[in-house]
Amino acid sequence: MLKINNLHAQIEDGAEILKGINLEIKPGEVHAIMGPNGSGKSTLSSVIAGKEDYEVTDGEIDFEGEDLLEMGADERAHKGIFLSFQYPVEIPGVTVTNFIKTAINETRKAQGLEEMGASEMLKLIRENAEKLGIRKDFLSRSLNEGFSGGEKKRNEIFQMMMLNPKLAILDETDSGLDIDALRIVADGVNAFKNENNAVLVITHYQRLLDYIVPDFVHVLSDGKIIKSGGKELAHELEARGYDWVIEEAAV
């Protein structure tokens, strides 16, 4: 589904952050990327999603056989890439429901489909809101305005379930969540994933991976993936930290 080859990217001032990322994600897989602060985890998610603050200087990103780097952020979203932000932005005056309706119908339009009917849309909203414990009054509030950290993250997962992307990238969605909110978010992700989509989880903490069990865990340090393994690697990182992996990679 996603193939990244020798990806290099820098910010506007020329500082290189990604220094040769190689990663392949297939349908049905859950991948987790862990690493110390400043290693490039959020940059990688932003580059895949098409954020314009970063310049790709070398390498390739293919998504289902197409060159992702030739597409704008909106085109990537319409192709089925979803990014759950670490810090979701507030949009006063735009309700959660209207935002969702617009996003779904713009994607359907880009795919040559008719708009989703009102009754079908309402049924889908109710089903997914119920799965995440979202109250009816929540849906009429302005997007993320006055939301707690947990409410913002829950809303991100709600958007993911409504949009039903092919690749969902969760950029530290677990940060700032208490254990109950963490479980709700994880339950939403687990209800979403299937053999036809894929999930890329970016996190500092192994605790999220107790609930969203990854097929592969990758350690990112100084702009490169320096170690990959199964779910047991996350437990080892929790117990031992990152220094041993960085030292091992330097040898």
Report on this model:
By secondary structure, this protein is an alpha/beta fold. It has one domain: 3-Layer(aba) Sandwich (Rossmann fold), CATH 3.40.50.
List the topology elements.
Blueprint: E1 2-11, E2 16-25, E3 30-34, H1 41-49, E4 54-63, E5 66-67, H2 73-79, E6 81-84, E7 91-95, H3 96-110, H4 118-131, H5 136-139, E8 142-143, H6 149-163, E9 167-171, H7 179-192, E10 198-202, E11 216-221, E12 224-229, H8 232-240, H9 243-250
Parallel strand pairs: 3-10, 3-11, 6-9, 9-10
Antiparallel strand pairs: 1-2, 1-4, 4-5, 7-8, 11-12
Helix pairs in contact: 2-3, 3-6, 6-7
Q: Supply the number of helical segments.
A: 9
Strand content: 25-35%
CATH class: Alpha Beta
CATH architecture: 3-Layer(aba) Sandwich
- What spatial form do the alpha-carbon principal axes imply? globular
Helical fraction equals: 25-40%
Distance between the termini: 33 Å
| Low-pLDDT residue spans | none
Give a short account of the largest sheet. Answer: 6 strands, mixed
Q: For the largest beta sheet, what order do the strands appear in spatially? A: 6-9-10-3-11-12
Q: What structural class results from the helix and strand content?
A: alpha/beta
Radius of gyration: 18 Å
CATH topology: Rossmann fold
- Write down the overall mean pLDDT: 90
CATH homologous group name? P-loop containing nucleotide triphosphate hydrolases
Find the count of extended strands (DSSP E, 2+ residues).
Answer: 12
Counting structural domains, the number is 1
Q: Strand-and-helix sequence, N→C? A: EEEHEEHEEHHHEHEHEEEHH
